Amino acid sequence: MEETIKVRKGEEIDINNLTNFLIENIHDLDTTNEMTIKQFSGGYSNLTYLLKFGDHEMVLRRPPVGANIKTAHDMKREYSILKYLGPVFNYCPEALVYCEDQSIIGTSFYVMRRIPGIILRKELPKALHFKPEEARKLCEKLLDVHVELHDIDVKSAGLDFIGKPDGYVSRQVNGWSGRYRKAKTDDAPDFETVIKWLDDKQPKDTDSPVLVHNDFKFDNVVLNPKNPMNIIGVLDWEMATYGDPLMDLGNSMAYWVEKNDPDEFQSIRVMPTTMDGALTRDEMICRYGEKTGLNMEYFDYYLCFGLFRLAVIAQQIYKRYYQGLTIDNRFGMLIFAVHILERAALKIINTTKI
């Protein structure tokens, strides 16, 4: 099960205000017991809390303390995505209530019903083991759920409000480049060679835009606790948009550290993708091409972009630590990941034929 901890200092929530708000706005709560609040320990972006009224479990999501990124922590947008997505994607958590009144807990937030299950982090839980053939099958299922997401008819689901696919690649490259330059600190690499290459080598817009999750990976899916081979939920929709499916896959593969990768890349692994039997990046990419019929020959571009984008996210979070806006020591280590990701992106640039 996903680990919870006592709420971290500086990230507390006013339990009385929140309790009163939830009782007024969610009508099936078991109010015979007082509400308790714990914090989920994983993740680096939006803060996530476990709320319990007796056996009734919910999850609250709010922006991180000290965040100053206008579009990356829009709680109303994320809540709306869940409301529209729920009827067409069985893995979506049920959205319960959104609140923009900052007098309740000091910021906007939303609450969704919890999907109880197993979330895989860097190492497998001690009680969980996958045989090589099971690990392979689980990787295949992860990829297949991603394909299922990309098969959703965005317009008929009412989700086309989330983005404009025309000019998507250009906006992504320009947007993330600007974010990196804004977040750059004195101890960060400049990434200018990577930025120029991504700008120069841009592919044309896809003629088959899809619902893009933008953070689809093992630690954002929930496994059935009774049968961990089954995926029952997909979480963290804060960066979802309407755009290029290969950009989405490239973002996912940027996280995919495999067994034979160099030691420094192993050092930033955050998921158990090195377990015996796990698919390699190339196998995941090939399977996606086989399932969708898309041409994967230009995929080095999308993987390079994914590595760059991941570095930007890490650098944005690190800057909050650098400026003293958060005291979470995990954030201080992210500068090393930024340097490693630049070297990985440069390696693609120097070896690819595109």
Largest sheet report: 6 strands, antiparallel
- The string of secondary-structure elements, in order, is EHEEEHEEHHHEEEEHHHHH
CATH class of the largest domain: Alpha Beta
Number of domains: 2
Q: In angstroms, what is the radius of gyration?
A: 20 Å
User: How would you write the strand order of the largest sheet?
Assistant: 1-2-3-4-6-5
Characteristics of this structure?
354 residues; alpha+beta; Aminoglycoside 3'-phosphotransferase, Chain: A, domain 2; 2 domains; two-stranded antiparallel ribbon
Question: Explain this structure to me?
Answer:
The protein is of the alpha+beta class. The chain has 2 domains: 4-113, Phosphorylase Kinase, domain 1 (2-Layer Sandwich), CATH 3.30.200; 132-351, Aminoglycoside phosphotransferase (APH), C-terminal lobe (Aminoglycoside 3'-phosphotransferase, Chain: A, domain 2, Alpha-Beta Complex), CATH 3.90.1200.10. The protein is 38% helix and 12% strand. The strands form 3 sheets. Strands 1-2-3-4-6-5 form a 6-stranded antiparallel sheet, sandwiched between helices. Strands 7-10 form a two-stranded antiparallel sheet. A hairpin with a 7-residue loop joins strand 8 and strand 9 (231-234). The longest helix has 24 residues, at 299-322. The model has no long low-confidence stretch (mean pLDDT 94).
